[in-house]
């Protein structure tokens, strides 16, 4: 029903507009007494065999919502009710920012993908942290892990980026279970330069020093681009080892347009942005496998990119991922996707 009736209707509207409309309606519907319980019966699969202990945290299941879907920590409760074992909010920045001009989110229907150049549009880390604290106080029986994906403001020069990351880290520390350092979005000018070995080592080392000031440090992960060379991936392995961070998320969106089925003229008209969804699936798996094998399985990896089915999830897990995340496929496949994949992992 979703793919035959609902999805064609949703696709009649601008991608970003319908995202906000649907999430607003979802939040409204689940605020009605009794609806959340019904939703959980429909979409949540509770089975201890799905539990995963990764970087010291117990995940109720290995399927998470990737960063970008819930930028402002508005939907953690609702996504938990749709079967996700963990939700990564953000990317958040210290100060609110509007992001890049619209339109900035585009569908590649033939490819099962999206192109986005959102540009870290968010309401700032402070409001997100407060919403997460409110959720923690009122989450009831929901067992869901929350990650905080942090970035820098667009107008912050790279030489001052550390201050932005530290601000968000400090603000979110008591509100999230783990952190993700995002230096791999293609939509903030110059951000990917921070993936180079020297600046990245300095950034992660400083965050780890801050982290160790606490009696119970939080896992810090690094989200990397799929467009890195093997030599750059070798540097990532060395940096993770040197700084002692908890792991890697592979991967962010790609700037590559190779292999797209969508008409090239249409793709050119869309312009800049990162590609997600099915076109990213093979490359993200390659990156996961390379990191896992070359590091000797030295650290956990969260796999993300083009997971539309249980087979896709198993491919990522078999390549070396400990957990996986969805985003684009959730839009194309509908609200039952997390449960469908979890059920497939059991049987």
Describe this structure in words.
With 347 residues, the chain is of the alpha/beta class. The protein has a single domain, classed as Aldolase class I (TIM Barrel, Alpha-Beta Barrel), CATH 3.20.20. Helices cover 41% and strands 16% of the residues. The strands form three sheets. An eight-stranded parallel β-barrel has the order 3-4-7-8-9-10-12-13, surrounded by five helices. Helix 10 packs parallel to helix 11. The radius of gyration is 19 Å and the shape is globular. The chain starts with a helix and ends with a helix. The model has no long low-confidence stretch (mean pLDDT 97).
Structural class: alpha/beta
Whole-angstrom Rg: 19 Å
In angstroms, what separates the terminal alpha carbons? 24 Å
The amount of beta strand, in percent, is 15-25%
Overall 3D geometry?
globular
């Amino acid at each position: 029903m979703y793919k035959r009736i609902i999805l064609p209707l949703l696709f009649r509207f601008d991608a970003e507009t319908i995202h906000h409309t649907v999430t607003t309606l979802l939040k409204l519907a689940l605020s009605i007494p009794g609806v959340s319980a019904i939703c959980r019966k429909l979409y949540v699969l509770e089975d201890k065999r799905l539990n995963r202990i990764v970087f010291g945290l117990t995940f109720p299941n290995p399927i998470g919502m990737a960063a970008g879907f819930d930028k402002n920590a508005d939907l953690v409760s609702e996504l938990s009710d749709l079967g996700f074992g963990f939700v990564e909010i953000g990317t958040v920045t210290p100060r609110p920012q509007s992001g890049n001009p619209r339109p900035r989110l585009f569908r590649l229907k033939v490819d099962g993908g999206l192109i986005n150049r959102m540009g870290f549009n968010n309401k700032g880390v402070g409001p997100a942290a407060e919403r997460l604290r409110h959720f923690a106080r009122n989450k009831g029986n929901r067992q869901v892990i929350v990650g905080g994906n942090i970035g820098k403001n667009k107008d912050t020069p790279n030489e001052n980026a550390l201050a932005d990351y530290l601000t968000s880290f400090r603000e979110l520390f008591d509100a999230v279970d783990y952190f993700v350092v995002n230096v791999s979005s293609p939509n903030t000018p110059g951000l990917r330069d921070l993936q180079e070995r020297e600046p990245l080592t300095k950034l992660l080392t400083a965050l780890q020093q801050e982290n160790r000031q606490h009696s119970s440090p939080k896992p810090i992960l690094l989200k990397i681009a799929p467009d890195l060379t093997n030599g750059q991936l070798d540097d990532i392995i060395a940096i993770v080892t040197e700084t002692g961070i908890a792991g890697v998320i592979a991967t962010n969106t790609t700037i590559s347009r190779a292999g797209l089925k969508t008409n090239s003229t249409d793709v050119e008209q869309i312009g800049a942005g990162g590609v997600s969804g099915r076109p990213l699936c093979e490359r993200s798996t390659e990156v996961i496998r390379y990191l896992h094998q070359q590091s000797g399985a030295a650290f956990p990896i969260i796999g993300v990119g083009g997971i539309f089915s249980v087979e896709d999830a198993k491919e990522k897990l078999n390549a070396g991922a400990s957990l996986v995340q969805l985003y684009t496929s959730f839009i194309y496949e509908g609200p039952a996707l997390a449960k469908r994949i979890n059920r497939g992992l059991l049987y």
